[in-house]
TrEMBL record:
Gene3D superfamilies: Methylglyoxal synthase-like domain. This is Bifunctional purine biosynthesis protein ATIC. GO terms for molecular function: IMP cyclohydrolase activity; phosphoribosylaminoimidazolecarboxamide formyltransferase activity. SMART domains: MGS. It comes from Nippostrongylus brasiliensis (Rat hookworm). One of its GO terms (cellular component) is cytosol.
Amino acid sequence: MTSVVLHLNPSTEIRLSRVPKFLVPLWKELMAMSQEKLAIISVSDKTGICELASGLHDAGLILVASGGTASCLREHGLPVKDVSEITHFSEMLGGRVKTLHPAIHAGILARDTEQDRQQMEAHHFKFVDVVVCNLYPFKATIANANCTLESAVENIDIGGVTLLRAAAKNHARVSVLCNPSDYDRVLSQVCTSFCSIRAHQKEIYDMRYLLRVFPE
């Protein structure tokens, strides 16, 4: 027999005494399920994003988005939190700094370990389960004959690249989508079970894929 404490959120816990040891993994799984699941959405190409976000919302994820992405989702009647509601820090420098914050990147990079969970709870950070992100159209921008240096510089994506790299590094726990052509396939699975997103991940995000996307 052992004693197990279920932390349902930073302010609530349930203590279960004299639980058989063989049930401990089940309680840990229930604890993980009790946590809010966040989907961070930050896209330049908004093709199909509202349909995907609707499916993620129906699957029980809390939608979190920044700037134009959040506005787009709200225009389609979807409940969405601004990134600033998670970071408790307003966008700054004309939008150059939005998602570059420990509350976002700890949520993405945190592993499913007791030590990481304790640190997340200590800072009242939430786990991010899904990252949907595509980047500023830098190539298309500089291909325009009228492109200015200022326009080219502003289309160098920093936050989006960082989101994708963080999610790719922690792909064992976090699902990452960057191509709208994958949305329909994931939607057909997520409507059945949120867990099937990870099954999709295992099909396409192996080490060879990661090396191809991030060669350096």
